[in-house]
Amino acid sequence: MKFTEQVWNAALPVYEKILAHPFNQELKTGALPVETFKFYIYQDSLYLADFARALAVAGTRSSTSGELLEFLQFAQNAILVERALHESYFAEYKIELTSGKAPGCFAYTNYLLASSAYESYEVAVAALLPCFWIYKRVGDAIYANQTTPNPYQNWIDAYAGEEFAVAVTRMLARCDRLGEQASESVRNRMVEAYLTSSRLEYVFWDSAYRRETWPV
Ligand SMILES: Cc1ncc(CO)c(N)n1
């Protein structure tokens, strides 16, 4: 079985919970409170800044310059998406939040940064896969069932769109090659990393929905 098929099956219950989460259900119908969306966009800008770093670091752990280039391009794109958030949503919604990372965002970004630095290249890449693939599947599912007009149309279009799809396809192909070449023990750790990041995707959405703050 292809690595990506294996992990998709392994994390299917997590994906289904993500899709059913009220954040995504309300995004789909447009009923999501704007204050919740603002909180999410702010947290996502903090996420994307670290996601870019994790991608770049993972790239430096590869053994070919082709792979390094691929991951540097992913990193560049994450930075450009982060900037676009500021130019569009931050301006449109007058987001002036300064609270920093909520616990959910903190957990996810630090997991990605730690994996990229301290895990093997293959495991680091597997940890980064849900950021692409789960977002793509969620974007597509929302796009296919959304209420129109929808105040969050730009967000939906970005993740259901062609440009993001190209990056996701490249990442999936990369993961399948790495999974195929990996020893059984490395492959098992790759599956574990994919699962952990999938759970953290859920945690991130749930944190945004609750506008999570630090308890102390
Ligand atoms: C939390 C999160 N995961 C994945 C993506 C897509 O890269 C994003 N923008 N935010």
TrEMBL record:
Keyword Chloroplast found: no
Enzyme class: hydrolase
InterPro entries documented for this protein: Haem_Oase-like_multi-hlx, Thiaminase-2/PQQC, Thiaminase_II, Thiamine_Salvage_TenA
The UniProt record lists the keyword Membrane: no
Catalysis performed (reactions): 4-amino-5-aminomethyl-2-methylpyrimidine + H2O = 4-amino-5-hydroxymethyl-2-methylpyrimidine + NH4(+); thiamine + H2O = 5-(2-hydroxyethyl)-4-methylthiazole + 4-amino-5-hydroxymethyl-2-methylpyrimidine + H(+)
Top-rank taxon: Bacteria
Listed EC numbers: 3.5.99.2
BP-aspect Gene Ontology terms: thiamine biosynthetic process; thiamine diphosphate biosynthetic process
Gene3D superfamilies found in the cross-reference section: Heme oxygenase-like (1.20.910.10)
This protein's GO CC annotations: cytosol
Boundaries of every Thiaminase-2/PQQC domain copy: 10-210
Pathway this chain belongs to: Cofactor biosynthesis; thiamine diphosphate biosynthesis
Gene Ontology MF terms: thiaminase activity
Keywords of this entry: Hydrolase, Thiamine biosynthesis
Function of the molecule: Catalyzes an amino-pyrimidine hydrolysis reaction at the C5' of the pyrimidine moiety of thiamine compounds, a reaction that is part of a thiamine salvage pathway.
NCBIfam families cross-referenced by the UniProt entry: salvage_TenA
Family recorded in the similarity comment: Belongs to the TenA family.
Protein name: Aminopyrimidine aminohydrolase
Lineage, uppermost ranks: Bacteria, Pseudomonadati, Bacteroidota, Cytophagia, Cytophagales
